[in-house]
Design a protein that fits this description.
The chain is mostly helical. It is built from seven helices and no strands.
Length: about 210
């Protein structure tokens, strides 16, 4: 690999730096989101349990911030408190209004939780092709240089071609963790989404029944 950095041209070095940037970005997102989602999943369960164990709605609303550190449950409750009179959003039956406001609040929470997934999806999809491009470019340069020098022999080809193939391995080394991270984190986001949807459904039933 050290020979690659020493003998590679500007384009090869650029592709290697792109892969390095994708790798660093992927691991930062994976480490940060894994910690965040683990905390959110725990807080959502605690927040929902505390909400339903409260003696009344006001008390439930007041104690949520102590459990909901990342603000995933509280926005759903706050959405039901927004004044809707005099607007199209306030038209229709109460349960329809609640469905609309809770759905919008839930989508806002999920957008925050899904932040960074695009980085992992991008790294997982393009890194193998960037690595392959680096390999093809390296082999092309090696063969061109040997042909011009009149040294086109098997032993002379093996070294430069082997160095160029490192780029393909580098690309796969970036893509595989990114894809695994995307799938594992996406699964955890799906679990949190299911819990929030269940809470929103029960909250709508509670508030619609009070009117």
């Amino acid at each position: 690999m050290s020979d690659f950095w020493q003998h590679g041209d500007a384009f090869s070095l650029f592709l290697a730096l792109v892969l390095l940037a994708l790798s660093v970005a992927s691991w930062v997102v994976i480490a940060w989101k894994w910690r965040l989602l683990r905390r959110v999943q725990l807080d959502v369960r605690r927040s929902v349990a505390a909400f339903w164990q409260a003696p009344h709605l006001t008390a439930a609303r007041e104690q949520l911030p102590a459990f909901d550190r990342d603000g995933c449950v509280l926005p759903l409750v706050e959405a039901t408190e927004q004044p809707l009179m005099g607007t199209l959003a306030g038209a229709g039956l109460r349960h329809e209004q609640l469905t609309r406001t809770l759905r919008d609040a839930l989508h806002g929470v999920l957008r925050r939780l899904q932040w960074g997934q695009t980085v992992l999806a991008t790294a997982g999809s393009i890194a193998p092709f960037v690595g392959l491009l680096g390999t093809v470019w390296g082999i092309f340069n090696a063969l061109t240089g040997m042909a011009e020098a009149g040294q086109l022999t098997v032993d002379k080809i093996a070294g430069p071609v082997g160095e160029a193939l490192v780029m393909t391995a580098f690309g796969l080394g970036v893509a595989i963790p990114a894809v695994l991270g995307y799938n594992l984190l996406g699964r955890r986001i799906g679990q949190i989404e299911a819990e929030l949807e269940g809470f929103a459904h029960d909250l709508r039933g509670l508030l619609a029944g009070k009117d």
